[in-house]
Amino acid sequence: YAADDNSKMLCFISGWDISRSLLRSCWEGNAVHQHASIGKTGRLLWIEANGEPRYFRRRSLLSRAMSAGGDSNPEPSSRHESFVDEAYPGTATVRLRSVHERVEQLSQQDLSGPWDEVRRKLLWAGGLRDLPNARPGAGYTGHSFNDYNHCDLTTMRDDEADNENEGRVEGMAWSNQLGPGIKLASLPELGAGGSWSTCMIGCNTDPPQDVAHVQFRSRIAFKLVWIPSTFTRFVLVDDAGNLLATGQPKGSLPPLEERRTNFRDVQGSKYATAAAELID
């Protein structure tokens, strides 16, 4: 542990196989903001201002950082946000943490069954109802993860859910009123705000220029990316591109060209890295 006089207490444990490690901390008021890229077996220790140590079990990086900035024991069902993401203030942070916790419960076997069942598990993990018979705009989720584009699981605050594109995302309709459908399809037990499978067009730029980041000013909880060259396996990655889960579903998958286009749309970005490392 080391800290200079100009920084607050911060601990980085390097004895546990931490990959791609980068740690930065800054204080504004009483909040701590942390950004890192930590391997699956890595652990982070944060020492609070009062000297009380807090250990985080393995979870996605963003979830750990949000936990550090919030209450010591935030309830996932709370209707209040414990942390405001300064870079993307439209993020429903408690809800995003809850989604990551659900993804952690899904084993590779869970994500390698019949595609219809796998897709329903992805909806459940993302805090969405399976509503294949609802009309579009009224909660319909039959398209979610079923094409190349609607593969971003986004958790946005209530006051951002009614935002429209208004020309901000290239290739998207000017008016794409998603708010009513988000409210109808979102499972309330994951926390404040809503969930939606947003379009990932524009995610291959830095910063991303997709619906989640631009229209809703939100990070994604996870993105589904199909793995070349057979495109029969997929990865789930978080907003930083870190690997969360993999699966190899069976049965009637989305059309092959949709799956190919899905990978092409992330090529050259951080979201392609995990899939590229697992190419068949």
Can you tell me about this structure?
- The protein is of the alpha+beta class.
- Strands 6-5-7-8-9 form a five-stranded antiparallel β-sheet. A two-stranded antiparallel sheet has the order 1-2. A two-stranded antiparallel ribbon has the order 3-4.
- The N terminus is likely disordered.
Q: Radius of gyration over alpha carbons?
A: 19 Å
Helix-strand pattern: EEEEHHHEHEHEEEHH
Count all strands and give the number. 9
How far apart the termini lie comes to 41 Å
Roughly what is the average pLDDT, rounded to an integer?
76
- Structural category: alpha+beta
Specify the overall morphology: globular
Biggest sheet, open or closed, and with what strands and sense? 5 strands, antiparallel
Strands of the largest sheet, in order across it?
Answer: 6-5-7-8-9
Please estimate the helix content.
10-25%
Proportion in β-strands: 15-25%
Low-confidence stretches: 1-61, 64-79
The number of helical runs is 7
Topology (elements, then pairings):
Elements: E1 24-28, E2 31-35, E3 45-47, E4 53-55, H1 61-69, H2 93-104, H3 115-126, E5 152-156, H4 179-185, E6 194-198, H5 211-215, E7 220-227, E8 233-237, E9 243-247, H6 256-264, H7 273-276
Antiparallel strand pairs: 1-2, 3-4, 5-6, 5-7, 7-8, 8-9
Helix pairs in contact: 1-2, 2-3
Question: Outline of this structure?
Answer:
It is built from 7 helices and 9 strands; from the N terminus they run E-E-E-E-H-H-H-E-H-E-H-E-E-E-H-H. The protein has 280 residues and is α+β, with helices and mostly antiparallel strands.
